[in-house]
Amino acid sequence: MPEQPIFYPVLNELYAVQIARDWNAKHNTPKRGYVTRFAVNANYLRLYEVKTVGASMHKEYWIPAEALDEFNRNIVGKIEVTHEFSGEIKS
Q1: 4 CB-near residues (< 8 Å, 6+ apart)
Q2: What are phi and psi of 67, to 5 degrees?
Q3: CA 55 to the chain's CA centroid
Q4: pTM for the full model?
Q5: Distance (Å, rounded) from C-alpha 42 to C-alpha 29?
Q6: Is the bond preceding residue 2 a cis peptide, omega within 30 degrees?
Q7: pLDDT at 91 over 60
Q8: From residue 21, how far is each of 13, 18, 33, 52 by CA, in Å?
Q9: For residue 70, which phi and psi values (nearest 5 degrees)?
Q10: Which three-class secondary structure string do you get for 13-54?
Q11: Region 1-10: what's the mean pLDDT?
């Protein structure tokens, strides 16, 4: 999100689902949450420490917003959407 100074790619799908379903689809506008999967060059990721921010499954990298162009250049292959959640109330 534009107001965040850090991009937080997470390291496992269960954690990503929690964020997309339980936070993004409920608290963001529009009320949607997506989980994506992609690979990043391991040599590049060595520049960053893995952070645990809650339970042991809550592992993520903290990539400064100003480093996102370089991060994006180090994505390997395609970005795949694996889950989609809606917090919209259906009538």
Answers
A1: 65
A2: -100, 5
A3: 17
A4: 0.85
A5: 33
A6: no
A7: no
A8: 12, 5, 6, 20
A9: -65, -40
A10: HHHHHHHHHHHHHHHCCCCEEEEEEEEECHHHHCCCCEEECC
A11: 85
Nearest partner of 44 among 69, 63, 65, 71, judged by Cα: 71
Q: Buried b / exposed e across 7-45, counting CB within 10 Å, b at 16+?
A: beebeeeebbbbbbbeebbeeeeeeebebeeeebeeebb
Tokens (6 digits) for 66 = 């100003």
Task: List the structure tokens of 46.
Answer: 């060595």
Look at the block and give the residue holding tokens 């042991």: 56
Determine the pLDDT at residue 72.
97
Residues in the chain: 91
